[in-house]
Amino acid sequence: MAAWTFERVAGPYQGALCGVAWTGSDVLFCAETEGRILRFMTASKNVEDFRRYAPRISGIALGPGGELYGCQEGSRRVVEYLRDGSTVVTATRLDGRLHNFPRDLVVDRAGRIWFADPHSPVLALGPQIYSTLDHASVLIAARARNHTWFLRRVTYDTVAPRSVALSADEKTLFVAEAGGPDGRRSELRAYPIQGDAEVGQHTVLHTFSTDHRGVQRGIEGMCLMPMAILSPVPVSANAAPVHASTCSRPPEPCWSRTTFRTICRYDARSRGPTSTASM
Fold first, then answer.
1. For residue range 192-239, what is the model confidence (pLDDT) as tens digits?
2. Residues of 216-227 as b/e, b for ≥16 C-beta within 10 angstroms?
3. 90 and 76 in contact (C-beta within 8 Å)?
4. CA–CA separation, 264 vs 266, rounded Å?
5. What is the pTM for the complete model shown?
6. Residue 5 lies in a domain
7. Ranges of the chain whose pLDDT falls below 70
8. Which CATH number do you get for residue 130?
């Protein structure tokens, strides 16, 4: 495979950049610290504000009808950004309790929002009235027949999910599980999707290392890439490689530094990463 090259097209900005979405013509991305969603217009190479006043927006994704959803980690909510400029909150409660700090999301063909819901050491904006859940899981926000949103819990074995992705056939859920100070290592997991958005026992595709400097931070974002781009030889559909952005050391945000910033390809055939480029 040919070597990857990188070109700066925007920035630098204050703090970390998160959440990238391709609209079909432009690239949307989030300046988390600045509370902005920006748009890079590929035709003109210009960057403009797409949405302002988006508190700690950490992940965005497009739905099957072009709907734009975002994880407002600072407000502890998943929202839909409507075309008229308004914002609508989706479901916020699981079994009567407010969910945690939504970090990353992906939308399936049925319009259901799968999102990572970890705890966070950074407090939410405003008064600290609502406690967090006693677990950190992948959740689904879906619409009932009356079009109201509701939440379902998907994973029961995660401790710190950071990022999620779905395979092209939507039969596999990829989850980036973060490590911890107790020595728990960061992992990339694959869960088989069974029945009505339920998952089976996960398989660990990759485990990140640990040394005297601590546990490697692991994956902060994932996406699927076309097979024609990633591999010169045909492979089965269920072995589609996943691209992930990784950060080697805590506590620095993944996009705040130029060292240890790597793009890796995780190939289900070998269950291991192939580094494609570093910055």
1. 999 888 999 999 999 998 888 888 888 888 888 764 333 333 333 333
2. bbbbbbbbbeeb
3. no
4. 6
5. 0.84
6. no
7. 1-2, 226-279
8. 2.120.10.30
